[in-house]
Amino acid sequence: MKTDMVIAGVGGQGILSIAAALGSAALDNDLYMKQAETHGMSQRGGDVQSFMRISDKPIYSDLIPKGGADIILSVEPMEALRYLPYLKKGGYVVTNSTPFININDYPEQEELEATIKALPNYVLIDADRIAKDEVGSARAFNFVMLGAASPFIDVPFEYLEEGIRKIFGRKGEDVVEMNIKALHAGRKFSEENR
Amino acid sequence: MQKSLLLGVEAIAQGAIDGGMSGVYAYPGTPSTEITEYIQHSKQARELNIHSDWAANEKTAMESALGMSYAGKRAMVCMKHVGLNVAADCFMNAAITGANGGMLIVVADDPSMHSSQNEQDSRVYGKFAMMPILEPSNQQEAYDMSRFGFELSEACEIPVLMRITTRLAHSRAGIARATTLTAQNKLKLPEDKLQFVLLPGIARKRYKMLLSNQEKFEAASEDSAFNSYTKGTDKSMGIIACGLGYNYLMENYPNGDCPYPVVKISQYPIPRTMIHKITSECDKVMVLEEGYPVIEELLKGYLEKESVVGRLDGTLSRDGELTPDMVGRALGFKIEESLEIPSIVAARPPALCVGCSHIDVYKALNEVIAEYGSGRVFADIGCYTLGALPPFNAINSCVDMGASITMAKGAADAGLIPSVAVIGDSTFTHSGMTGLLDAINEKTPITVIISDNESISMTGGQKSSAKGKLEAICEGLGVEKEHLHVLLPVPKKHEEIKDIFRKEIEYKGVSVIIPRRICVQKNIRDQKIKKARAAAKA
Q: Nearest CA to B161 among B198, B212, B124?
C-alpha cells in the first residue's frame, strides 16, 4: 500500500486541510506518512504545493521524485499542470475546473481545458459548483476534491471519513457531516466521469 | 503509544519541551518560525512556565538564551540561517564562554532560497565556532536530537548547534514521543565565576580549553547513535550522506538494498574513524550534502588527491537543495520519463494582498519619486520587498535587515539626494534604529518611511516589538518633531500622502514618515480570535 500525491493550489486556498485530513487518516491506521508543504513568501497569492506520501512501509524522502506521483490533486486547473513532471506514467490528474485568476497572463479557459483533456488520465470537476449546489457550502470544495481523488488513493475510503471527523470534530457535528457529504459528492462524480 | 503528527520544526519544539527546556528565544524567520509558535501555543509549555516571547532580533535572542544557560537552565534559541549572521558576535563568543545549563541553537537553512536572500550553510558557522553540530535526517531524529542536544551541551559544556533545512522543517511525519519527561534544571550559577568574562587573559585560557575539547566532541560523534557505518558489498564506491542527503539516498533503495558502504552523518565534528574506514576501503567516495560541499571539500582538498565526487565535480548540482531524483541520477539510476510543464502555465509570483497598506505607500511614493528620477529607493526585508515586482517596480535594494536606512545614508553621502528608505515596523526595531541614529548624528538628508502594519506579516503575523513605540523611539533618537509624521495609508488620502512625501524629501535632514494601518491578514486573524473569545464567553 503506497500513494504519493502532489496537492496543488494557490496560497490561501486551503490545500493544507486536505493534507491534514489525509495525514490524520494515515496515522490513526498505523500507516507511515510524510507531508511536505510550502510556508513563507510564496503563501502570498503564489503557487503552493504539498507533497503527500502514505505507505505501509517506512518513507525516507519528504519530496516525491519526478515521475513518481500517483496523483496530482489540484484545487485550481492551471496549477494542476505545473506539477506534471512529477506525475508517474499512468498516474491521475484530478483537478478543480474553477480558475483562480490573480495574474494578467492567465491562459484562456478553453486552451486550459483542452490541455487537461489531452492528458491520458484525468478528472476535471467543478468542485466549487458541487460544493455550493449539492453540498450546500462553498467552503467544502476542498473535500469535494479529496473525494474526487479518493478512488485513486490507496487508503480505505472509511479512513478518509475518519480523518475528516478527527480534524473537524471540535467544530461540531454539522461541519463534520457537511465535509463528509462533500467527500461523497466528489467521489460519486469521479466514479461517473473518470 | 499513538504517534503525534508534527512538522519537523514542531518536533524540535516538542522535543525541547519534553527535554527540560526553561525558555525559547527567537525572532521569526522562514523556515524556523513555527518552533517558537508551537511553544507559545502549547498548553504543556504554559503549565511548565516556559518563556516563549519573541525577541527584537536574533542577537538579543541568543544573548538572552546564553544568560539563561549562565543561570543553569536549559535554553533554546531559534532563527533562520541569515539570522545567525545577526547573532554571530554572540555565537562565536558563546563557543568560548561555553554553556552552564544546556543551550541549543537551532538554525534553519533555506537551500534553493524558497524564502531567503541566500543559501548559506550554517554548518560552516558551526565549524568556524568549533561547536558540536546536530543535523537531523528526519522528523523523529529532530525530536530526539532536541532532547539529546541539551544533554550533549551540558556534557560538553558548550552550546550545541542544530542545523535543519526547509524540507525537514516544513514536512510532517508521525513522531513517537518520549515516555518520561525531563524536569527543568534548578537555578545554578557557574562554578567558575569568571567563565563568562572574556577578558583577554581569561579568553585565551577558555579558547585553549575549546581547542583541547575538540577531541572530546569528536569522540561524542564517533559514539553517536545518530551517526552510523553500514557495510556494503560493492566497494567501487562508498557514500557519505549527511542529514537529509541520507533520506534521498535511501529513497533510491526502497528495499534497503544499497550495495555501497554508507556513512550516515548527523552529528559533527565528522566521525574521523568512519571516514577513514570508508575512504580506505572504497575506490571512490560520493558525498551527499544538503547545502554547501563542506565535507566534500575537506576530503577532496585543494590538491584534489582523493577520489571524491559530489557537488564540486558536477555529479550533483553545485547550488540548490538536493532532491531524490538528483541523487538518483548521481547514483546512476534512470529517472522515469515524465511529462513537461505545458507552455501555457504562467508564473504566479507572490503578491501583496488586496487592501494591503504597503500598496498605498508605493502608489504615492512612485508618483513622487518619478519627479526626481528613479533608482533612489532603498528597501528592506518583509512583505514590502514585493514592491520590487510589477506593477510597482518601486524599490532598488533589499540586502539585509535594516540595510534600507544605512544604504540610503551612504548613497546620500555619495551625493544621491534625495535618497529614500522603506522599512517595516518590526524590521526597524530589529536593526533599523541604530542606522537611523547614524543619520541623525550627521543630519544626513534622507527620508525614512516606516511602513507600519503593526505586525511581522511575511512570517505569519507575529507580534511586532515596535508596536506602539515607533514615535517615541524616533523622537528619542533625535528625529525633529516637525519632520516626524504619522499618516493613514488609504486610497482617498493619496494626494495628502504625496504632499507629505514631497515636502519631506525636499527637507535637507532626516525625516521619518510612518504610514500606519494594520496588516489585512493580521486583522482577519485578530477578528476571528475576538469572535471566538466572545462566543466562548456567551
A: B124
**B144 CA to chain A: closest CA distance, Å?**
17
CATH architecture of the domain covering B228-330: 3-Layer(aba) Sandwich (3.40)
Query: Which class does domain B357-522 fall in?
Result: alpha beta
Q: What kind and span of H or E run contains A22?
A: helix A15-28
Domain spanning A2-126+157-170, CATH class: alpha beta
- CB contacts of B324 in chain A (<8 Å) are 61, 63-65, 68
- Closest partner residue to B338 (CB to CB) among A36, A67, A107 is A67
Whether pLDDT at A42 is above 60: no
Of B79, B71, B123, B124, the closest CA to residue B101 belongs to B71
How many angstroms separate the first and last alpha carbons of chain A? 22
If we measure between CA atoms, which residue out of B38, B48, B35 comes closest to residue B185?
B48
CB B362 within 8 A of CB B393: no
Which residues of chain B make contact with A62, given a CB cutoff of 8 A? 167-168, 171, 244, 247
Q: Which residue of B has its CA nearest to A66?
A: B325
User: What is d(CA B405, CA B411) in angstroms, rounded to the nearest whole number?
Assistant: 10
- Mean confidence (pLDDT) of chain B: 96
CB contact under 8 A, A44 and B386: yes
Q: Which of residues 352-391 of B touch A (CB under 8 A)?
A: 352-353, 383, 386
d(CA A53, CA B140): 16
CA distance A12 to chain B (A): 11
Between chain A and chain B, the number of residue pairs with CB atoms below 8 A apart is: 156
Peptide bond into B269 cis (omega under 30): yes
- Sorted by where each begins, the domain ranges of chain A are 2-126+157-170
Write out the residue limits of the CATH 3.40.50.970 domain(s) in chain B: 4-223, 357-522
User: pTM (2 decimals)?
Assistant: 0.95
DSSP letter assigned to residue B481: G
The CATH code of domain B4-223 reads 3.40.50.970
pLDDT at position B304 is 80
In whole angstroms, what separates CA B80 from the centre of its chain?
A: 0
Residue B390: CB atoms within 10 Å: 8
Rg (Cα) of chain A, in Å, rounded? 16
Query: Nearest 5°: phi and psi at B21?
Result: -70, 140
* Residue ranges of chain B assigned to CATH 3.40.50.920: 228-330
- Asked if residue B217 has pLDDT above 80, the reply is yes
Distance of alpha carbon B396 from alpha carbon B376, whole angstroms: 7
Given CA atoms A127, A170, A13, B78 in this order, what sign does their dihedral have? negative
Predicted confidence at residue A50, as pLDDT, reads: 94
Kindly determine whether residue B340 and residue A106, on different chains, have CB atoms separated by under 8 Å.
Answer: no
- What is the grid cell recorded at B85? 549572521
Q: How far does the CA of residue A46 sit from the closest CA of chain B (Å)?
A: 4
Number of Cα atoms under 13 Å in the Cβ half of residue B352: 24
Distance CA B361, CA B72 (A): 48
The beta-carbon neighbor of B344 closest among A36, A44, A112 is A112
Beta bridge partners of B515: B487
Phi, psi of B59 (to 5 degrees): -70, -45
